[in-house]
Automatic annotation (TrEMBL):
Segments of skewed composition (Polar residues): 194-206
Protein name as it appears in the record: Asx homology domain-containing protein
Source species: Lentinula detonsa
InterPro entries membership: ASX_DEUBAD_dom
Lineage of the organism: Eukaryota, Fungi, Dikarya, Basidiomycota, Agaricomycotina
Region (Disordered): 1-34, 188-212
Superkingdom in the source lineage: Eukaryota
C-alpha cells in the first residue's frame, strides 16, 4: 500500500466579505504567465501518480481568487459539480416524514409555493466564496490528491474496477466474506494452538497431526469425507432478498460423494418448487426420475448459485454478496429414528448450518 503524499498543508487564504483576499495574509510572488497545455499533458496531470498535483497545497490552486479568473462558461460548467450548500440561495428543507414537518400544510398554498426539494439554483454567480475554505471541501480535495497519488485514477486501474464490478453483477466474483477475513486475521499461532485443543491433545504435548489450521481451509468435501455431511442428508437453503421482496427456499438431497473430483452430487426439483418428492425423502430412495435435476458442487457458494439459477426468480446481477455457509442447513435422521412421511424432509431433524458444523468439526480436530 502506498504512503500518503508529502505535501505542504497550511491554512487557506482568509477571505473578507465579497470574496477578496485579506491583504494581511502573506502572498507568494509569482510571475504571471499564459500556460498552454495539450491533452496528453493534461491527462498525465489528472491521472498519473507522479502528477505535481499530489505535492502542492490544494488551496493554492482552488480558491476564490482562481475562481474569479475563470470564464463564465467554465464557471457555469464547474458550478454544476458543487453541492447545493455552496450557493447563496440554498434553502434548508425538512423531509415530510420528519416530526418537525408541518402536518397540516396551508390549504391555500399553490404547488409553485412549495419549498420541497428547493436546494440551490447552481448559478455560477451565486457560488459562496467561503466554500473554497470549507473543511469539507478541502477534505474532498485532499482525498482526490490521495487517490491520484495511489494510482486509483489511472486508466488501467479503472479497467480493473470495471472488470470487478462486472464480475460482481454476473455472479462470477465475490468479495471475501467478513467472517472468513476475521478468521484469517485471527487464526491461532503455533504457540497458541494448545489452548484450543481438547485435553487429550494437550496431554500429548499439543500434537495435532497437522489438522489444526483455521476453519476457512475446511472445504465442503472435507466435511463429507469426515461424515459431517453424509449421503442421504437434505441441505435446506433459505434466503430473503429484501430489495426484491422475495424469499427463496429449496431442499437438495446429497446423492453421492465424488472422491476423485472432491465434490458432492445433489438432487433438486426444477423451478421454484421448494421440497423434494416424497420418494426421494425416504431412506434408500429409488433412482431419480425426471424432472429431478442433479448438480455437482464443491462449495456452499456454488450450491447457492446453482439453486438460484434453477429457481430463476433472482437474476445474477441482483444477488448481493453473502456467506452461503450460514444459510444452508443440514437435516438428518437421528440414529434411532426411521424415515417418516410426517413432513417434507422424511422425518429428518435439523443438524445445524454448514457454518456451525464446520466450526464444530474444526474444534473437534
Amino acid at each position: 500500500m502506498s504512503e500518503r503524499p508529502k505535501r505542504t498543508v497550511r491554512k487557506p487564504v482568509r477571505l473578507l466579505a465579497g470574496g477578496v483576499a485579506d491583504a494581511s495574509q502573506p502572498r507568494t510572488k509569482r510571475k504571471a504567465q499564459q500556460l498552454s497545455i495539450d491533452d496528453n499533458a493534461l491527462d498525465t496531470l489528472l491521472t498519473s501518480p507522479k502528477s505535481t498535483l499530489t505535492n502542492v497545497d490544494v488551496s493554492d490552486i482552488i480558491n476564490a481568487n482562481t475562481w474569479a479568473f475563470l470564464s463564465d462558461e467554465s464557471k457555469a460548467h464547474l458550478s454544476k459539480l458543487l453541492p447545493p450548500t455552496a450557493f447563496s440561495d440554498y434553502q434548508r428543507t425538512i423531509d415530510p416524514g420528519h416530526p418537525s414537518h408541518t402536518k397540516d400544510p396551508d390549504p391555500n398554498a399553490m404547488v409553485v409555493d412549495s419549498t420541497r426539494g428547493l436546494q440551490g439554483s447552481h448559478g455560477a454567480d451565486r457560488v459562496l466564496p467561503s466554500v473554497f475554505t470549507d473543511p469539507h471541501f478541502l477534505a474532498a480535495a485532499h482525498t482526490f490528491q490521495d487517490h491520484l497519488y495511489s494510482g486509483w485514477l489511472k486508466p488501467e486501474f479503472k479497467v480493473k474496477v470495471a472488470k470487478h464490478e462486472e464480475g460482481i453483477r454476473d455472479g462470477t466474483l465475490a468479495a471475501p466474506w467478513k467472517d472468513e477475513e476475521w478468521e484469517k486475521e485471527h487464526c491461532l499461532g503455533e504457540n497458541d494452538t494448545s489452548k484450543s485443543l481438547p485435553s487429550k491433545s494437550r496431554s500429548n504435548g499439543g500434537a495435532t497431526n497437522g489438522k489444526v489450521g483455521h476453519t476457512a481451509e475446511i472445504r465442503m468435501y472435507d466435511l463429507a469425507k469426515n461424515s459431517v455431511v453424509r449421503v442421504g442428508d437434505i441441505i435446506s437453503y433459505k434466503r430473503h432478498f429484501a430489495s426484491l421482496g422475495v424469499v427463496i427456499e429449496k431442499d437438495v438431497l446429497v446423492h453421492s460423494i465424488n472422491t476423485r473430483a472432491r465434490s458432492l452430487t445433489v438432487l433438486l426439483e426444477p423451478g421454484p418448487t421448494q421440497h423434494l418428492p416424497s420418494y426421494l425423502s425416504m431412506s434408500d430412495p429409488s433412482d431419480p426420475i425426471p424432472p429431478i435435476q442433479s448438480m455437482e458442487i464443491t462449495s456452499p457458494t456454488m450450491l447457492e448459485t446453482g439453486i438460484l439459477d434453477v429457481d430463476g426468480r433472482v437474476e445474477r446481477g441482483k444477488r448481493p454478496n453473502g456467506n452461503a455457509w450460514k444459510i444452508l442447513t443440514v437435516y438428518r435422521w437421528r440414529e434411532e429414528a426411521a424415515s417418516s412421511m410426517a413432513d417434507n424432509k422424511g422425518g429428518r431433524e435439523s443438524h445445524g448450518t454448514l457454518h456451525y458444523l464446520r466450526n464444530s468439526h474444526f474444534s473437534d480436530t
